[in-house]
Amino acid sequence: MNDLREDFREILRLVRPGARVLDVGCGEGDLLELLTREKGVDGQGLEIGQEGVSACLAKGLAVVQGDGDRDLDYFPTQAFDYAVLSKTLQQMREPAHVLSELLRIADQAVVSLPNFGHWRVRWALVAKGRMPETRALPEPWWSTPNIHLCTLRDFTELCRELDLRIDACSALSGGKPARPIDPEKPIENWRSESALFLLSHRAAPPRAPAQVDLFGEVAPTDAEPTPKRRARAKAKA
């Protein structure tokens, strides 16, 4: 497991054995396969590409073909313990809606994303006047799938607006071991190449029995729909 993606390593440490997990944008199922093998999870993937779906099925994984922007709406409320979105949020057309849906269908969400506020990104813009290409953002601007890049500050502000609680956050840089951070600190917006967030609802009641999160501490609470989300669901109906 030495060549394991660092965000996968953190997610593996986070998820409790036997949990119900939805991996949104699961690709070829590498994370689902890892979680199934190491933690015995009841996993399901959502993947838009036919090649990824075929690869998952070949591995014996449960997967449905669908678009995370639209098809999360069809999943039942609290059908999963964890909803995972690994380095995919910036590719979504409606990131705020996707985050809200993740925490409607799951008790907790694990989201990793590149940080557009990293110092290498800022330096490329200031010194070269060009869109940056870094380890976390390797594609040129004209071929990248990323359409909603953000900084750590942007993301924490969005979580606040959606009434989401950041229970834990770790910085990921260049394949180095993840380190716990406070994403509200300005310095982390400069030095974190990517970040992984553990999210829940602010109004969620305590979980019983207590679980352990990715940093070895007592896990955060379950998530429940907010009044705003319930009103929105009624309006859709």
Describe this structure in words.
With 237 residues, the protein is α/β, with parallel strands linked by helices. The chain is 32% helix and 21% strand. The chain is built from 8 helices and 8 strands. It has helices spanning 6-14, 30-39, 50-58, 95-105, 119-128, 152-161, 186-191, 227-236, and strands spanning 20-24, 42-47, 63-65, 80-86, 106-114, 164-172, 179-180, 194-201. It has an 8-stranded mixed sheet, sandwiched between helices. Helix 4 links the parallel strand 4 and strand 5 (106-114). The longest helix has 11 residues, at 95-105. It starts with 5 loop residues before the first helix and ends with a helix.
Layout of helices and strands:
Blueprint lengths: L5 H9 L5 E5 L5 H10 L2 E6 L2 H9 L4 E3 L14 E7 L8 H11 E9 L4 H10 L23 H10 L2 E9 L6 E2 L5 H6 L2 E8 L25 H10 L1
Write a concise synopsis of the structure shown.
This protein is an alpha/beta fold and 237 residues long.
Distance between the termini: 46 Å
**Coarse shape:** globular
What structural class do you assign from the helix and strand content? alpha/beta
Walk across the major sheet and give the strand order.
Answer: 3-2-1-4-5-8-6-7
| Count of separate DSSP helical elements | 8
Helix content: 25-40%
- Indicate the radius of gyration in whole angstroms: 17 Å
Name the descriptors.
alpha/beta, 237 residues, single chain, 21% strand, 8-stranded mixed sheet, 8 helices, globular
